[in-house]
Task: inverse folding
């Protein structure tokens, strides 16, 4: 392989710490690094050209009175289907609320409810409302604004834009000792130079631009990973790239950054249909249907496109009651990159043709696990979908249940079904010995029994008559 070589550095600067990248990671690292001495913060183009400014939906943190870092941890582990680094997730969930409050102290203005508390919404995989947002769906822009203001105001940080970092410099022991960089138009430091430092922080963001289609901005080219590898660093977990299920299809030949269609649209009640108008993912496929974890939804879309031979993304249909909200969410997308033109979005609202559903039935948790037979999981998903069907809504409402939350766990030796009614939220848990199901002749019948027991437990607790669709 031929490697392009830059000319030798023509100038040198020094700082105690060099931070590369000015997204949420680099800006935060720079502010904290001031405790170690002088900080040089360098960034490839303009200070806010990274992914951070584009983040829409919000930041997840366990802040609600009925939420806890432990619940957040459990939801994350379920969505992570056994692949999570539990210690790292624990730090994220436990420290999240404090980090969020630090952003508030720096001046980030998150949306509040009438009582002045954080206005929280829900996104895929979460069993609680725990998404903090700003300006509706402009969360990243607000976080970036507040952090940039704090960095610019800090006397210990020097910020240099248009500074493309090329390589790490290492000392005789192979430890990072600075970077080489190409600066455009910074007075005497124009051209290729060297920034020497006791410590280097690489915060260069993602690598979405290596894919044919991405929602990442043009700076997301994986430079930090590449230059760390060239310097002999070990990198891990590169296979964990998030494929957001929904971006806006701008027509054949559109290249570069594509506008993201926020999950909040589905959170508000919209669902995905293919070009024939068929739903792409139903409660029978996954208990959370359109709000299943993103990898599940992305794979369902991909499968459907392959089956049908479509080259377009599926479109959205709103359930009628949220048509206004959905329109607003889509039209709030920033103009498309480059051309500055807004995409033409067709949100089809069925309005009065669809029955309005007053109750919210949510089925949470219980992602696929390798230990549990497929036949059990498929049947359970199907039955939980039936439980959430519109035909059963009157039944729930008769018991004053506005929200049903079902979670299932596969780690318990003795099976049981638990229910807990708090105000108008009914939480139910199905617990089983997952691996033990592999020794049962017909695991699907066990799923029938579990859901029967669940319906029966709900009836005992609420005094309801039979469910219209399910025994128990
Ligand atoms: C459309 C979209 C929506 C999103 N929505 C959400 C959301 O709702 N919630 C959420 O939690 N996350 C969301 N994300 C993800 C989130 O934005 C990112 O995970 C986060 O912003 C990454 O921050 P970062 O600081 O690591 O990287 P970035 O913000 O990308 O910053 C990387 C920085 O490194 C610089 N850089 C790169 N290479 C070099 C180089 N060679 N030399 C110098 N500088 C370099 C870049 O210019 C940039 O300043 C979204 C992302 C996108 C694209």
Result:
């Amino acid at each position: 392989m031929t490697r392009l070589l830059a000319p030798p550095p023509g100038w040198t600067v020094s700082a105690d710490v060099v931070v590369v990248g000015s997204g949420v990671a680099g800006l935060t690292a720079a502010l904290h690094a001031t405790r170690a001495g002088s900080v040089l913060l360098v960034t490839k183009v303009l200070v806010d050209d990274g992914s951070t400014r584009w983040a829409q939906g919000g930041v997840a943190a366990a802040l609600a009175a009925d939420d806890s870092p432990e619940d957040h941890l459990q939801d994350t582990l379920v969505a992570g289907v056994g692949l999570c680094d539990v210690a790292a997730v624990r730090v994220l969930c436990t420290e999240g609320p404090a980090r969020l409050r630090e952003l508030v102290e720096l001046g980030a203005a998150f949306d509040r409810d009438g009582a002045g508390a954080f206005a929280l919404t829900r996104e895929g995989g979460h069993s609680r409302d725990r998404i903090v947002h700003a300006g509706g769906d402009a969360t990243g822009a607000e976080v970036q604004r507040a952090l940039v203001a704090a960095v610019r105001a800090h006397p210990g940080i020097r910020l240099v834009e248009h500074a493309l970092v090329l390589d790490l410099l290492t000392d005789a022991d192979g430890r990072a000792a600075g970077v080489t960089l190409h600066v455009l138009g910074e007075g005497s430091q124009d051209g290729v130079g060297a920034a020497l430092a006791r410590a280097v922080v690489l915060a260069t963001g993602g690598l979405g631009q290596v894919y044919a289609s991405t929602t990442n901005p043009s700076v997301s080219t994986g430079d930090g990973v590449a230059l760390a590898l060239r310097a002999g660093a070990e990198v891990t977990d590169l296979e964990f790239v998030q494929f957001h299920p929904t971006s806006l299809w701008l027509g054949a030949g559109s290249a570069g950054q594509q506008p993201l269609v926020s999950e909040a649209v589905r959170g508000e009640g919209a669902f995905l249909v293919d070009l024939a108008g068929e739903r792409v993912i139903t409660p029978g496929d996954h208990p959370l249907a359109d709000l299943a974890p993103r990898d599940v939804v992305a794979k369902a879309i991909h499968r459907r496109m392959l089956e049908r031979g479509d080259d377009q993304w599926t479109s959205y249909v709103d359930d009628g009651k949220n048509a206004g909200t959905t329109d607003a969410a889509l039209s709030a997308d920033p103009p498309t990159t480059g051309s500055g033109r807004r995409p033409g979005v067709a949100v089809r609202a069925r309005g009065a043709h669809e029955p309005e559903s007053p109750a919210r039935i949510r089925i949470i948790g219980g992602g696929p696990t390798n230990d549990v037979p497929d036949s059990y999981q498929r049947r359970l998903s199907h039955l939980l979908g039936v439980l959430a069907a519109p035909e059963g809504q009157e039944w729930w409402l008769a018991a004053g249940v506005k929200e049903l939350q079902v979670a299932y766990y596969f780690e318990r030796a003795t099976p049981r079904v638990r229910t807990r009614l708090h105000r108008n939220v009914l939480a139910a848990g199905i617990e089983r010995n997952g691996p033990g199901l592999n020794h049962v002749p017909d695991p699907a019948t066990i799923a029938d029994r579990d859901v029967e027991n669940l319906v029966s437990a709900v009836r005992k607790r609420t005094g309801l008559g039979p469910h219209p669709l399910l025994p128990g």
